[in-house]
Amino acid sequence: MATAGFCDQCSEWNKSLSATKYCFDCEERLCADCAETHDLFKSLTSHNVIDLSSVDSNNLTFAMKHCNFHSNTVLDCYCIDHQIVCCKNCIRHNHRKCQNVLPLEHASKDVKSSALFFDIVQNMKHMIKTLTDLIDNRESNLQRLAKSKSFIRKQIRKVKSRLLKQIDNLEIDLQAKLSNLKRNHAIEINKQKEDILHVLDSLKATGNEINFLKDHGSTTQLFIALHQQEPIIHSTDEKVLQMVSNSKEIDITFDEKKEIKIESFEPLSDTFNPCQVQYTSRKFQQAQSMAEPTQIMVEQTKRITEFQIDTELKLKFRVNYNITDLSITDDDKLLLANCSPSVSKLYVYRDCTNYETEINFYCNLFGVAVIPGMDRAVVTLPSKMSIQFINTKQMTKSNIVNVKFECCGITAGRDKIYVGGTYGTIKTLDTNGTILKSIKNGSGIIYFILHDDIREQFIIRCHNKLLCVNFDGTQVYSADASGVAGVTRDRRNNFYFGNYHTNTIQRLSPDWIDCATLLNEVDAINHPYGMCFNNDFSKLFVVNNFLKSVFVYTFK
Questions:
Q1: CA distances from 366 to 337, 340, 382, 435 (A)
Q2: d(CA 59, CA 47)
Q3: Do residues 276 and 373 share a domain?
Q4: 39 sits in which H/E element
Q5: What digits encode the pLDDT tens for the residues 371-388?
Q6: Are residues 466 and 335 in the same domain?
Q7: Measured between alpha carbons, how far is 476 from 468 in angstroms, rounded to an integer?
Q8: Which helix (H) or strand (E) is 238 found in, with range?
Q9: Is 321 exposed, middle or buried (0-12, 13-18, 19+ CB in 10 A)?
Q10: 254 and 325 share a domain?
Q11: Are residues 133 and 98 located together in one domain of the fold?
């Protein structure tokens, strides 16, 4: 692009004429004459041209129009099957089998009134407000710490008058500790403020860019920008959630009435309470406000009609396996819970294929679930009536939480953990392990459990039964099943459950009306147990052969 402020067309002829307008479709600044000529061409009349006098011409906002993988090719297509903006070269090499590819100008039609635009803008506003409130909260906390320091100093002087000569040395010690506490907490809070301001400034800048493109840019520019910002907004959403979670209300208190011995006098303490600023992540919706040819976007996933065996996982040699459950982390590490009496371990397989490491337990474990969006998983320890957290980055054990009943099945969302076990008990915990709620539905031992936060329902697997119950414990549906085996679901919310004694895996529709057998003995299913899909729902992992092996299936 030519020097800021000059007409790009004239600059190619070594003329320096001031630009008065800008065309977003041509990506060129235009002088008055060139702008007039531009408007004479019928094919260019639909272009988005703005008057530079109405905006800061040195701060024009652009969405990238060239492909990341083919730098010389313009982004001009949208693949509905993969929900990605791409160029014709991408279509030719990576999307040849995709049936739903639209020209970008068609896909971006009505984007300014789409759910995608609304969700991104609203989500940014929501996060900006939360971060602004969080800054105010942090500042208020700093002021309260300063006031408490002054107040506690007066309390310390009152105590001093009741003590003998040793109190002089004690006062100095207390004052130093108080200053250290205040300083250390202030340092941490100020660091939090810096981090918050960094994210806040970035969000505001992004919001300004989106609003600018909404008001002045083309629909294509805005559409591309929104799709480029969507993963960033998702990532920022998790950062904001983590920032609010990490922010604590810090207060310093002083107990002047405490019974003490002069040599062990330690009345200063700091308390940590949950931050008063609350944040609930908004859920994104995919923009679907397109004309009739783009209604295919509602059908974002293909229906699984048939499975075929892909491979058998190569397990570590010379191990007495009794694999009960399995789960997959966000970075594609397969976790296998092995509850053999002699070998109680959580095995880790990199890329869901290669053995990487193992974590030892000193009591039997049964269920395992990954907490989405965090580098954490959680396992059940039935004999200890407990659950234990796992750091999935370092693959180390973390804190144990006593849930006060013999627990087996476990599932986790972004902010809650659900544990099932004896007497049909289901307990809800937050991601720190605090028990929030407990229900009983009298269904016997719950070996496996799924949750549906939208419908507020659990899918639970007991002996010979698959049940759907509301979060309050009332039963909604019931289906017969053989023995005990796992349960999972695909992205269309169909349920898949195993039949241990009849050697089958069946699929049940979300309304519990249609039930079909997808895998059986012909597909090498032999006493199946735990099961789960991988992160893109392209493969089904099944514990098989009396809990001794893991088979992987793909759908045709």
A1: 6, 10, 7, 20
A2: 20
A3: no
A4: helix 32-40
A5: 988 899 999 999 999 999
A6: yes
A7: 5
A8: helix 219-246
A9: buried
A10: no
A11: no
- Secondary structure string (H, E, C) spanning 267-298: CEEEEEEECCCCCCCCCCCCCCCCCHHHHHHH
Residue 150 shares a structural domain with residue 42: no
Rounded distance, CA 50 to CA 96, Å? 38
Tokens 């506490």 sit on residue: 181
| Residue 3 maps to a domain | no
Q: Indicate the number of domains in the chain.
A: 3
| 292 is a domain residue | no
Q: How many CA atoms lie within 13 A of 233 on its CB side?
A: 29
Domain end among 87, 111, 135: 111
- Other CB atoms within 10 A of residue 113 CB: 10
- The encoded tokens of residue 81 equal 């099957």
pTM over 0.90: no
Amino acid at site 215: D
- Residues of the domain holding 381: 307-555
Tokens representing residue 420 in the block: 């099932």
User: Which tokens hold the place of 204?
Assistant: 């505001």
Structure tokens at 19: 């630009």
Start-end of H helices in 87-218: 88-94, 104-107, 115-162, 166-216
Give the pLDDT confidence of 233-289 residue by residue, as tens digits: 888 888 888 888 888 888 888 887 776 665 556 677 777 778 777 777 765 444 443
